Amino acid sequence: MGTSFPNSKTLSLFSLQVLFTASFSSPSTAFANETLSQCLISHSQASHPIISAIYTPANSSYSTVLQSYIRNLRFNSSDTPKPTLILTALHESHVQAAIVCARKLSVQMKIRSGGHDFEGISYVSISSPFFILDMINFRSVDVDIETETAWVQVGAILGEVYYGIAAKSKVHGFPAGVCPMVGIGGHLSGGGYGNMMRKYGLSVDNIVDACMINVKGKILDRESMGEDLFCAIRGGGGASFGVILAYKINLVHVPEMVTVFRIQRTREQNATAVVYQWEQVAHKLHEDLFIRLVMDVVAGKNTGEKRLLSMISDGFPELGLRSSDCIEMSWVESTLYWMNFPIGTPVDALLSRAPKGLMHLKRKSDYVRQIISKDKLELLWKRMIDLERPILTFNPYGGKMGKIPTTETPFPHRAGNLWKVQYATNWHEEGHEAAQHNIELTRKLYNYMTPFVSKNPRAAFLNYRDLDLGVNHNGDESYEEAKVYGVRYFKGNFNRLVKIKTKVDPGNFFKNERVFRFFPGKKKVKCPNK
Ligand SMILES: Cc1cc2nc3c(=O)[nH]c(=O)nc-3n(C[C@H](O)[C@H](O)[C@H](O)COP(=O)(O)OP(=O)(O)OC[C@H]3O[C@@H](n4cnc5c(N)ncnc54)[C@H](O)[C@@H]3O)c2cc1C
Ligand SMILES: *[C@@H]1O[C@H](CO)[C@@H](O)[C@H](O)[C@H]1NC(C)=O
Ligand SMILES: *[C@@H]1O[C@H](CO)[C@@H](O)[C@H](O)[C@H]1NC(C)=O
Ligand SMILES: *[C@@H]1O[C@H](CO)[C@@H](O)[C@H](O)[C@H]1NC(C)=O
Ligand SMILES: *[C@@H]1O[C@H](CO)[C@@H](O)[C@H](O)[C@H]1NC(C)=O
């Protein structure tokens, strides 16, 4: 059933091949790192020395600096292309120097904040040479309860933001992702959803100002960048438009106590009926409720047979919830609960940047707009049990998500969506064969889901970056190539982004060359919206 998916096979194979066979000519690398270091030094201000922010491969800390923000072990292998230099910028003048020198020497620049990109594009490039502008030292979180806002720098992690808000108020929070180690830079420029989405929308719906550096090295705020560019960096992906230094966010109101629960049901315990009921109600419930559904294949404890385990978190009585299942806690404690920390874990666990249990990862995404019947659910369980590894997570929409116009931000997946699907495969095995196998399992489940998900385009979530959806070769066809995945991520907003990109970065300096290229260059950009 529904295993056809035009174009994806060739494109995805191509992207893998490119990644794994890329080779570097060392002379040009050596040349580039030396001149790049020299250029950076000569462009830095005496008051803010840059030398201590430069890591070349000759530096004994180079590998540690590189690896400490690789969050997908798929890109921690010896043949993953390595940067010729890492600049851990300490001051905005270092970012300016990076842009000036990268342009002057034609070295590809990758911008990394939290390093959680699922395809590693913040620290891997097929361009030779390339370097990393690492924003990890820009990590202040400045909360102002009086104005109910906060300035958060891009290298801060979500946990630091949650912690920083809670340290000043028990009744304020911020709607963003579930994993506390995700970086602000990628998360807020690409969307940012979490369990307050039905109440307050996405992170991008709660940004009120930003500070960034453009291709000319100029520092801009909302007023000086203008509303178009300010819109683009709230969901259009930061890396195509400039280097973002910080976002100003609006805090939202949370009750002093929230209620959480987690229920597990196996297939034998009527999981199908529970899921079917979830399908009817989760997107219609009061927007104060968010019930995420996770479907996983687990081995039966006693019999060893595989079972489908269904796990439901966060409050809804009709699903067989007993009051003993419910736990009251503060909002900030609930952020830990969602990450499976034991109850009572001190809140400063949110500040930890030491990753636990890193694995090799593949993610894909979909949007569901119609209920899946019980019979089809049963078939889906069978398919999942065959494939064994990929996990499905359903995040319900509705509430505020259905009320924000699709044109408000680049993120277009609003009214009409019942829930978002995340396909997740995680593995420990090293090597290309294991990677190929696990990626293939993920694609198989994705193909199986074709009849049940959005079509024309089959939509996808930018923050769940998925190179299967297309890569760019930066040739004459780059606009057409970008459109293939661009309309999936942005739908009708894609052309508006192309227009903004063409205006603010006509030379296409800011690019994720494996992913994005809103090509302005010589070829005339077709903008039906103009
Ligand atoms: C464990 C895990 C859990 C996750 N949970 C959620 C979740 O609950 N909700 C959700 O919405 N998403 C989630 N994500 C996805 C996550 O939001 C994205 O991967 C996000 O882009 C990560 O941001 P980062 O700064 O850590 O990533 P990075 O890898 O540093 O950057 C991601 C992209 O943004 C660009 N970028 C980064 N910083 C800047 C900057 N300062 N200026 C311009 N461009 C920049 C990079 O070049 C790259 O293209 C999760 C990811 C992981 C790995
Ligand atoms: C430049 O890189 C090469 C190899 O990547 C390395 O051998 C050399 O020491 C580097 N030069 C500097 C100045 O760090
Ligand atoms: C590595 O770089 C850091 C930061 O610039 C510097 O303090 C250190 O001395 C360097 N170490 C080596 C061995 O070059
Ligand atoms: C990443 O690779 C390096 C070099 O092989 C290794 O030392 C390190 O342990 C790896 N990181 C993780 C988290 O496995
Ligand atoms: C499953 O549903 C049936 C029929 O609705 C019910 O009789 C039974 O008690 C349920 N089983 C469980 C474990 O909930």
In short:
Helices cover 30% and strands 18% of the residues. It is built from 14 helices and 19 strands.
Average pLDDT, rounded to a whole number, is: 87
Q: What structural category do the secondary elements indicate?
A: alpha+beta
Number of separate helices: 14
Q: What do we call the CATH topology of the largest domain? A: Vanillyl-alcohol Oxidase, Chain A, domain 3
Strand content: 15-25%
CATH class of the largest domain: Alpha Beta
- Characterize the largest beta sheet: strand count, sense, and whether it forms a barrel: 6 strands, antiparallel
How helical, in percent, are the residues?
25-40%
Taking all Cα atoms into account, the compactness measure Rg is 23 Å
Count of the domains: 3
Topology, number of strands: 19
First-to-last CA distance = 40 Å
- Which segments are poorly predicted (pLDDT under 50) over 5 or more consecutive residues? 1-28, 301-315, 515-530
The small-molecule ligands in this entry are: flavin-adenine dinucleotide, 2-acetamido-2-deoxy-beta-D-glucopyranose
Shape: globular
CATH hierarchy: architecture of the largest domain: 3-Layer(aba) Sandwich
Strand order of the largest sheet: 13-15-14-18-19-17
Protein name: FAD-binding PCMH-type domain-containing protein
Domain FAD-binding PCMH-type: 79-254
Signal peptide: 1-30
GO molecular function: nucleotide binding; oxidoreductase activity
